[in-house]
Amino acid sequence: MNPRGVFAPIPTPFDDDERVDIARLRAALARWLTTPLTGLVVLGSNGEAVFLDELESDRVIATAREATPSGCPLIAGTGRESTQATVRASRRAAELGADAVIVRTPGFFRTQMTDDVLVRHYSIVADASPVPVLLYNFTAVTGVDLSPAAVARLARHPNVIGMKESGGDIGKIAQLVDTTPESFAVLAGSATTFYAALCLGAAGGVLAIASLVPEACVRLYEAAIVGRHDEARSRQRQLIPLARLLGPVYGVAGLKAALNSAGCDVGIPRGPLVPLPDTATMAVRDVLARFDEISLVPR
Amino acid sequence: MNPRGVFAPIPTPFDDDERVDIARLRAALARWLTTPLTGLVVLGSNGEAVFLDELESDRVIATAREATPSGCPLIAGTGRESTQATVRASRRAAELGADAVIVRTPGFFRTQMTDDVLVRHYSIVADASPVPVLLYNFTAVTGVDLSPAAVARLARHPNVIGMKESGGDIGKIAQLVDTTPESFAVLAGSATTFYAALCLGAAGGVLAIASLVPEACVRLYEAAIVGRHDEARSRQRQLIPLARLLGPVYGVAGLKAALNSAGCDVGIPRGPLVPLPDTATMAVRDVLARFDEISLVPR
Amino acid sequence: MNPRGVFAPIPTPFDDDERVDIARLRAALARWLTTPLTGLVVLGSNGEAVFLDELESDRVIATAREATPSGCPLIAGTGRESTQATVRASRRAAELGADAVIVRTPGFFRTQMTDDVLVRHYSIVADASPVPVLLYNFTAVTGVDLSPAAVARLARHPNVIGMKESGGDIGKIAQLVDTTPESFAVLAGSATTFYAALCLGAAGGVLAIASLVPEACVRLYEAAIVGRHDEARSRQRQLIPLARLLGPVYGVAGLKAALNSAGCDVGIPRGPLVPLPDTATMAVRDVLARFDEISLVPR
Amino acid sequence: MNPRGVFAPIPTPFDDDERVDIARLRAALARWLTTPLTGLVVLGSNGEAVFLDELESDRVIATAREATPSGCPLIAGTGRESTQATVRASRRAAELGADAVIVRTPGFFRTQMTDDVLVRHYSIVADASPVPVLLYNFTAVTGVDLSPAAVARLARHPNVIGMKESGGDIGKIAQLVDTTPESFAVLAGSATTFYAALCLGAAGGVLAIASLVPEACVRLYEAAIVGRHDEARSRQRQLIPLARLLGPVYGVAGLKAALNSAGCDVGIPRGPLVPLPDTATMAVRDVLARFDEISLVPR
User: Fold this and answer.
1) CA–CA separation, B207 vs B280, rounded Å?
2) B4, C11, C243, D15: least CB-packed within 10 angstroms?
3) DSSP states of A62-103 as a string?
4) Which chains have at least 3 CB atom pairs separated by less than 8 Å from chain B?
5) In the Cβ-directed half-sphere of C25, how many Cα atoms lie within 13 Å?
6) pTM for the full model?
7) How far is the C-alpha of D43 from the C-alpha of D52, rounded, in Å?
8) D37-63 pLDDT, tens digit each
9) Which residue of A has its CA nearest to D190?
10) CA-CA distance, B211 to B259, in Å (whole number)?
11) With an 8 Å Cβ cutoff, are D190 and A196 in contact?
């Protein structure tokens, strides 16, 4: 398991009654597996993992594993608020065939999440997990910031192989690369910072829009890796308006509306989230129309 | 169910292996039921509800109901990130005998939590819940702020009977009282603002330290209600150092250490939280020593 | 100089070319001096002090002193970013007849503003100032929070007689009262928290809307002080919508539009601030119409 | 005036009585002018401009102009809180020979600083300034964020030639480059993001540490511009620990201590800032020792 390249954290399809829709999930997986993506992440933030119970989570992982050939890395989100629950979810994910787990920081008791507490939490999880662990820092959502110093300590654990950093502070990405071994993979979690992160030594990205425009993301990655910087910069600029719209502005509902518009049926989000309103969907379609790889379905 | 007075959101005892400890819970409940507290809240933030799975949650409610006479209001925290899961938890809590449920705002997708989204979420929950619903706003933890305008809309729902506001902004408390009907109970969620909230028309409080110093909290409430303002102010000042220490500074671990020091055995917190270090426990004991109702157990 | 009661931090009138308008200032002062206000503050935040140069500042103080009888306390804002400049401004204000100075925390280099740095800054100013000094904490504007611990240290200085706290956290007000001597006056800086602050032992308030509805503010103060809590609460509730509108929402431009609407001509704000748009002025007038003491001038 | 390359925002030397020290300034300027820096910025944030009165500001600009050959661009910070004062300062700077002015956003009334207000402010300044204007966004200090949309509007003004963006969000830098004409220079204001900003099309940087390690900054710039990305990345990594230490951690006092340690005597900061404590100076010296171009003076 070498987490270098472009990973898509895929959404979890729901039907009109907000139930996990396994048929839609299978169809969408079949589509993603024809793309040049390096691998898939299930049950990430954009997978609405916080809305799923443990049984639903297991079904999503099992379905994804079944559909995904063993050569294609499958990573499962298993972060929970309690350390014990995270350990149990990681063990189950491994049993169901995940190649690695990605564990976001607990955040409910954020004022208590010191470096020491987080290092202890991740060490217990990494000790117990049968598959490698990726750290996952998403301060905008959790209110917790996993510091470079804490990451440097955790990078020494043999079962901690990398990290997804979703913040936009490129200086932190540089510090993470600088204070961890070569073998530790720092992955950008924000498409707007992807090219800059690669310039500074990031190993790849886990990008929400990679499930929507995989070609554009992978071509950017390749251009940056081989040193075609003009191409990489121009591809990066093309991605930013889409990333801004589907990240901070419309969120999961926006991503689902975009995928539906592009012919990849992922249904609606689960409440309290609501489907994207029509006017917003039109705005999303306008941005999507700029991408060659997308064929918009008629409304 | 008339939520006026002083409610204690009780901690959930764990044993040394971090399992829910029903025996300790029963013993602690017996103790709290001898106090002048108006009622109890199980599975609140300080009950470490985010660390419990659904089965554990049910056992805590059932145990509390068994121990609590029907005259003593029992409120259960049933907020989950998804609307569906909140509905299911509320129905189960009602079946298990809770007199009301208290539902904190979802927060994971905070940028999407507009007034409309939150009103829709709570309306679905209130429609479905067999027992009355209390709103619960805790911005410091969830990153979401339930606005006075949204509360005013929800206060018109016949099954929404009140709200716990944990923020320290007394102007917001005044607005909440002012824009909701007399019958809607605004409850302070922060012991440092309790007296000021009562002055402005709050109906009572749901105060973490009420499980520790119930006498002091109830005496403050009574003094304020009958207009003994000098006494109320002086009792309020006495509570502040304790509330500051056990709220923002030491959190749940501090509250558990304090209860253990006062002879009410509630065990340790669940990981990633860690038991309070010894030096911090000494600081807590120093503040506790100022309360007549507390007899410190030897260390 | 005993800063107890209700103080109005008055706006600085500008003419249509944004010059300090001494004639308008004199006329407005004459009006304020017929009200039951305890005293006046010139060159506060709402006085647009940051827009005035040193000569303009001096003219405002001199004009106010000339108009204000010696029995009516006149306080001048003299906070500057540098310690030296604050000392010089305080000395000049004293020469020009100010009874006291009010000094907001420096904020430009906010990450360096530790307790020690702020205690040093205020101690140098208090040593040098010929008239008593009031501390002034306005975190929403400066990004700096003067802590209760720092205030407790400064309250021991014989020339530091009180503090204006503009934050809405009533728990902090209670701590400030609790950790300073009786003689140290804690003044609320936010009209939405005024009654609650008085309940907890505050000595009064420095309230932007006191220049607009002095009667309402002073009657609230008197009711709270003598223990007519029902009246105080009801007056407090009346003030909140006005305070919200003119504080966080419309700011100085809103206050000036409100005063102009009430027949007290204070002109326009200085750029980059712009006069309040017409629709917003209508909203302000709607709220003003609820106050008996206000006679709206025709538009 | 073409603001491409590496600019040093130089500190303002003070003597032991905190007076502007023109002799020290001249000596330091002579030193900076032997380096490969593209140009100098006086009266920036790190120049402690907020501590200087108008006369002191003028002397600093005049001294810098006298020392700086006409081929070396000299930029003066002229941002004030009021629009009028900013216009006046910009005119004086131009008279004193500044080649351009750099104007930070006003911030005191931050809640009122909408896009429209900021566009109006900068348009008035740009209309009036005899020399070209650079926008300057420093949200961490001002609390105001000049949005890409506002910048796009201002970039159409013929006298607005570029912008310094001090935030670390590389996605915003990319948007700024993308939504402004080729001729508009986006300059990084944070040394930790310098290389990434250049990758995304930034024209250069205004970097506090450029006054300390000009060689290292200019070599990074050249490597990035000609496409020696491995060298650029490695130079970027070398700069980060120094930039972190002298930016968010020790600030101006740290920069002055570092320059003094490197033999460039710039005296102490002005109060309320205090000289860097000895232990912190030792930490700074340790990081400085890693740079070839620095010869530490004995302590």
Assistant:
1) 21
2) D15
3) HHHHHHS-TTS-EEEE---SSHHHHHHHHHHHHHTT-SEEEE
4) A, C
5) 26
6) 0.95
7) 9
8) 999 999 999 999 999 999 999 999 999
9) A171
10) 8
11) no
